[in-house]
Specification:
The protein is mostly helical. It starts with a helix and ends with a strand. Bound molecules: zinc ion.
Length: 214
């Protein structure tokens, strides 16, 4: 899942309006922020395999540290502890977002999602059908956007346009991944992954700073 994770980050703004969208996105996407780093250092493995599922050309050979349920619970506790600084509501939201990544990926991935390193792998395989994936993920994303728009208002033109552009760009990348060619190499994949994390988290933080909770 891609934009579905962002959807939960957007919706979480309602629960903790004072917390930056950049942080909420980082929590919802923490698994996919860690994953390209772990690929780069050889801790985890992926294979480019067009047709692996209808939706993605990637075969997630091994990613127990970024994508197992057990480790995401640990990452959620650690990230929540660091980011929330004892604001318990914020802690609960961040922890839930980090772990939600596993739940959403469990729904979409074929059975390649580990429960714990070396443990059984599960997945409901929504990605076997492109229409079914779009039918779940796009409405989820639109709902997240709607909640975010109802929770915040722009302070200036940056708050209005940079956020709209971010929302549209994420959707465009999602569609582009679907219709575009597979990544040329695993190296290209993790470079784009790391760069993408930096750009989109910074962009979300910047756009959100120019909006205020209603
Ligand atoms: Zn993921």
């Amino acid at each position: 899942m891609f934009i579905g994770h962002f959807a939960l980050g957007l919706a979480a703004k309602r629960a903790v309006p004072r917390v930056s969208l950049g942080l909420l996105f980082a929590a919802a996407q923490l698994a996919d922020v860690l994953w390209p780093i772990f690929l780069a250092i050889g801790l985890e493995q992926v294979r480019i395999d067009p047709g692996n599922t209808a939706f993605t050309p990637l075969d997630f050979v091994s990613y127990p540290y970024s994508h197992s349920l057990a480790l995401l619970i640990v990452w959620g506790l650690v990230f929540g502890w660091i980011a929330a600084a004892r604001r318990w509501r914020v802690f609960a939201v961040i922890f839930t977002l980090v772990v939600s990544h596993w739940v959403l990926d469990y729904v979409t991935h074929r059975p390649d999602m580990p429960l714990y390193p070396g443990g059984p792998k599960v997945g409901l395989g929504l990605w076997n059908s492109v229409p079914a994936t779009l039918a779940v993920e796009v409405p989820l994303y639109l709902a997240g956007l709607w909640i975010y728009f109802r929770t915040t208002r722009p302070l200036d033109a940056i708050g209005r346009w940079s956020f709209g552009l971010l929302a549209a760009t994420l959707l465009l990348i999602y569609v582009g991944n679907l219709v575009g060619p597979p990544p040329p190499s695993v190296t290209a994949l993790w470079i784009v992954g790391i760069a993408g994390s930096v750009i989109f988290l910074a962009w979300a933080w910047w756009a959100d700073r120019h909006r205020d909770a209603i």
